[in-house]
Amino acid sequence: LRVEIDRGDVFYETPGQAAAARKQLQSARGPTLVLFAKDGDTTRPLIRWATTIGGWKKERTEEGEIALKYKESDVGDRVWRRIIAAPAWMPPESTPETDLLRELKDGTHALKSDLIQPGHRNAYGLAMLIHEEERTRGDGTIWDDHGIRTHGSVDFRSIGRGESHGCHRLYNQLVLRLSGYLLQHRTHARRGRMHAGYHRTLTWNDQTVEVDVPTRGYLYELDPPVPVRVLPGRVAGRVQKPISTLITLDPPDASRG
Hints:
Blueprint: E1 2-6, E2 9-10, H1 15-25, E3 32-39, E4 42-50, E5 55-60, E6 66-71, E7 76-85, H2 97-100, E8 101-103, E9 109-111, H3 113-116, E10 127-137, E11 140-153, H4 156-161, E12 168-171, H5 172-185, E13 188-204, E14 207-231, E15 234-235, E16 247-250
Parallel strand pairs: 1-14, 2-15, 11-12
Antiparallel strand pairs: 1-3, 3-4, 5-6, 6-16, 7-10, 7-14, 8-9, 10-11, 13-14
């Protein structure tokens, strides 16, 4: 078994310019994920599904500003060595509080727990496969994790647009089919629940909300790992590289703490 992720037509322009360039192209090619199996001397594609690559996403800067930053997807050879079932999501410090909190009728704020705790609405969906880069150090092998995953998602619109924070999203029912198939056809070990110990305090409008994530999910390790190749795709716009500057959306807010 091996996997190929084609990033399709890539647009590095700012959001408005990218939309105009995509419209001008008319038939932009979206990113896809293909699982191949070797059958004798023939390599056969088993599935070909729409997926996502990077795009412009909101991020909180060190100064407290909310800005748009382009999130890139890794290109090159990786492996799927670890599958996590029922994953929890541990939001990074750069995640804006407004993405993690909902306002209640009485004016107070509550955590969007379904985004963090295991479940179909979790940011990682129902299953997650970690992309790792295999490197040799001395006489051993090390596995570099660049933060990219293939995972489930309930955000159907983002899959339709082909955009994410850099990960490769799949519909929840498809990531379950994929991970279940790999476990049926690959030697693996059950490692059990993974400890997280994540804690964060959110401050918004003089209110504080505590976030605790005790476990990351249930871990399976594949042996041997499944090779994954992420193709660069075609840069379809005029901008040839990701824009490194941020697009500020609003001024700093002292109430964030």
